[in-house]
């Protein structure tokens, strides 16, 4: 099985590996997949509470080269986007960018899930730490 | 394509000798005359071209028989162990169907056995798949209990291709002999590597493959016992009655000559070679274990092929490992490396968790591997595992003291 150059690149030089403090209110954490499936992705975003822009992102992945590449790419793509813009990222975009073969498409789906999970987590945190200014900004 | 490492090791390194082996140059040399000079059909009885081809075949037959303690008449040539497995199971099932319809095998068998059994089940045969213990061995009490008055065949592989574990064939043979049941063993990984004796081990049928012992691909053999008891099988391929009516078709003379030579070499080299390979394997294991924690050997070390090492590297997935050691050829039990996205069923049968099955690597050392290669591989493995553990959320969680078995994993998140 030959890997695409982009997958190899992300694998050899993964972007944004690491972790944020899970408990921080600025951080959203998405943990998707399961060890029994051979794929677990943790994707974290650090969001500017005033602008809802994702200022930083980090990931860690247990999975094949395509899974690592998909999640690495995901962190690259979400950085600089607003939370709503990031939700628009589709797994098919990842497939295209990395030239994933059919048997690896599920890796891109998991990466998309990881983005959504991280955003979902962040949103949940915002809802429970509601401040008056934020309520106005959202409305 | 090939380069050299800093330590002078030629890359890429081949350490996947359970998948296939390079041909020994001496085998190739033995085969060559039979392509363009001694090219006759060994069944041509009336001229010298046929006779010299036949001579090559019969010499090969003798060599194979000698390696396994059989007589030449008991060796049937096939296209490989898969065909031999098919022929043994289907041939016995058909021939002995008046006697019974029950076959016993094990869950860790090669697909050539398991898929054949599935087909026989469709034809109305009953198959019992014995489980294995955590060490990979069949429980002899399970076997004894499973045999009933309709059992016609027990098929248990001599040595497993994934974990290298060697079954207690001699005891299995004794049990089968006592109960009047035929014993077939898929000895693809064992012949030429460990001592095999069909009489001592009371084996009635046995599958052999050339390309697992430095011979050519596309040829194998089936040992079929002629005495005590006399075994008969229905042919699966008809057309002229070659190989005592058991397998028709013009013999692949050069390939057969190659198989014979490979067996002769194996017989000569086995005592030395098995010691050397076991030492290399233990060296590989030792160096890896020195550098890394949370690595586990799959299957018992006590009854194992000398060149096999199958290890799981916790928190790191197998295919990503293989990608990192791109100049080393080994294989993995991870789902991601299989065409069907299923993790290794052999590791599963051992009770290894799926996560560790996904983290497994199979090293298969062979005749042409060197100590320098072993050292390179061990160092590379340690380097890549450490790097991937830095990327691994599971390793992070484990270091935080989280019990991964207690985590409820969300395969899909809530939005």
Structural write-up:
The complex is a heterodimer of chains A (139) and B (415). With 139 residues, chain A is of the alpha+beta class. Chain A has one domain (5-127): Sufe protein. Chain: A (Alpha-Beta Complex), CATH 3.90.1010. Chain A is 47% helix and 19% strand. Chain A contains six helices and three strands. A three-stranded antiparallel β-sheet of chain A has the order 1-2-3. In chain A, helix 2 (65-78) packs across helix 5 (105-128). The longest helix of chain A is centred in the last third of the chain and has 24 residues, at 105-128. The termini of chain A are far apart. The model of chain A has no long low-confidence stretch (mean pLDDT 91). Chain B is of the alpha/beta class. Chain B has two domains: 3-21 and 270-402, Aspartate Aminotransferase, domain 1 (Alpha-Beta Complex), CATH 3.90.1150; 25-266, 3-Layer(aba) Sandwich (Aspartate Aminotransferase, domain 2), CATH 3.40.640.10. Chain B has helices at 25-31, 33-36, 48-68, 81-95, 111-122, 140-146, 169-179, 253-291, 318-324, 345-349, 354-358, 371-390, 393-399; strands spanning 3-4, 10-11, 13-14, 75-78, 102-106, 126-130, 151-155, 182-186, 205-209, 220-224, 295-297, 308-313, 328-329, 331-332, 360-364. In chain B, the strands form four sheets. A seven-stranded mixed β-sheet of chain B has the order 4-10-9-8-7-5-6, sandwiched between helices. A four-stranded antiparallel β-sheet of chain B has the order 11-12-15-14. A two-stranded antiparallel sheet of chain B has the order 1-2. In chain B, helix 5 links the parallel strand 5 (102-106) and strand 6 (126-130). The termini of chain B are far apart. Classes of the chains: A alpha+beta (139), B alpha/beta (415). The interface between A and B is medium-sized, with 33 and 33 residues.
């Amino acid at each position: 099985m030959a890997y695409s150059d982009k997958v190899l690149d992300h694998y050899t030089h993964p972007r944004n590996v690491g972790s944020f403090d899970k408990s921080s209110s600025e951080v959203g954490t998405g943990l998707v997949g399961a060890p029994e499936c051979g794929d677990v992705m943790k994707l974290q975003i650090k969001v500017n509470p005033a602008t809802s822009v994702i200022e930083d992102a980090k990931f860690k992945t247990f999975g094949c080269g395509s899974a690592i590449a998909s999640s690495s790419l995901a962190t690259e793509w979400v950085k600089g986007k607003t939370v709503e813009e990031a939700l628009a990222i589709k797994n098919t975009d990842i497939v295209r960018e990395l030239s994933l073969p059919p048997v690896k498409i599920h890796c891109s789906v998991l990466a998309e899930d990881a983005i959504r999970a991280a955003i979902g987590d962040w949103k949940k945190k915002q809802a429970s730490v509601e401040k008056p200014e934020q309520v106005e900004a959202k409305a | 394509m090939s380069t050299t490492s800093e330590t002078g090791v030629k890359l890429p390194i081949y350490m996947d000798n359970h998948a296939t082996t390079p041909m020994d140059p001496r085998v190739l040399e033995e085969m060559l005359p039979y392509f363009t000079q001694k090219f006759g059909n060994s069944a041509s009885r009336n001229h010298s071209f046929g006779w010299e081809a036949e001579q090559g075949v019969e010499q090969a037959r003798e060599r194979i028989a000698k390696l396994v303690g059989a007589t030449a008449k008991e060796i049937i040539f096939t296209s490989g162990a898969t065909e031999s497995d098919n022929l043994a199971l289907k041939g016995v099932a058909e021939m002995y169907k008046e006697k019974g319809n029950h076959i016993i095998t094990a869950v860790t068998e090669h697909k050539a056995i398991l898929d054949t059994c599935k087909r026989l089940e469709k034809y109305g045969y009953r198959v019992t798949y014995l489980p294995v213990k955590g060490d990979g061995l069949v429980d002899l009490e399970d076997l004894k209990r499973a045999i009933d008055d309709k059992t016609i065949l027990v098929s248990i592989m001599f040595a497993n291709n994934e974990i290298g574990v060697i079954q207690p064939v001699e005891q299995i043979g004794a049990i089968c002999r006592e109960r009047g049941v035929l014993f077939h063993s898929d000895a693809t990984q064992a012949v030429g590597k460990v001592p095999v004796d069909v009489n001592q081990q009371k084996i009635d049928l046995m599958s052999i493959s050339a390309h697992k012992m430095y011979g050519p691909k596309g040829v194998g053999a089936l040992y079929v016992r002629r005495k005590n008891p006399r075994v008969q099988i229905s042919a699966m391929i008809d057309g002229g009655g070659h190989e005592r009516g058991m397998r028709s078709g013009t013999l692949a003379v050069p390939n057969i000559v190659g198989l014979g030579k490979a067996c002769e070499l194996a017989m000569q080299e086995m005592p030395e070679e098995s010691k050397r390979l076991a030492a290399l394997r233990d060296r590989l294991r030792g160096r890896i274990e020195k550098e890394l924690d949370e690595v586990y050997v799959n299957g018992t070390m006590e009854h194992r092929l000398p060149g096999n090492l199958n290890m799981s590297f916790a928190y790191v997935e197998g295919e990503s490992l293989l990608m990192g050691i791109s100049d080393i050829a080994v294989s993995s039990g991870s789902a991601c490396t299989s065409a069907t996205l299923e993790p290794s069923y052999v590791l599963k049968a051992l009770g290894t968790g799926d996560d560790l099955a996904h983290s497994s690597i199979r090293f298969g050392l062979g005749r042409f591997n060197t100590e320098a290669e072993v050292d390179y591989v061990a160092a590379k493995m340690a380097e890549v595992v450490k790097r991937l553990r830095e990327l691994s959320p599971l390793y992070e969680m484990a270091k935080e003291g989280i019990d991964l078995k207690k985590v409820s994993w969300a395969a899909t998140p809530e939005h």
